[in-house]
Amino acid sequence: MNKGKTIFSQIMSLIPERNFKTCVDR
């Protein structure tokens, strides 16, 4: 679970919040 959280954190850091929100909206 720690590894998954780390990867997720890195992805979120790479992609902007707007892009992330758009993905979630879909």
Structure description:
The chain has helices spanning 2-14, 17-25. The model has no long low-confidence stretch (mean pLDDT 76). The longest helix is centred in the N-terminal third of the chain and has 13 residues, at 2-14. The protein is 85% helix and 0% strand. With 26 residues, it is mainly α.
How far apart the termini lie comes to: 25 Å
| Shape designation | elongated
Radius of gyration: 10 Å
Strand content: under 5%
Residue-averaged pLDDT: 76
Main beta-sheet annotation = none
Q: What string, H for helix and E for strand, traces the elements in order?
A: HH
Tally of individual helices: 2
Helix content: over 70%
Q: From the helix content, strand content and strand pairing, which structural class follows?
A: mainly alpha
Number of strands: 0
- Unreliable runs, pLDDT <50, ≥5 residues? none
Write the SSE topology.
Elements: H1 2-14, H2 17-25
Brief write-up:
This protein has two helices and no strands. The chain is mainly α and 26 residues long.
Name some characteristics of this structure:
single chain; 26 residues; mainly alpha; 85% helix; DUF4372 domain-containing protein
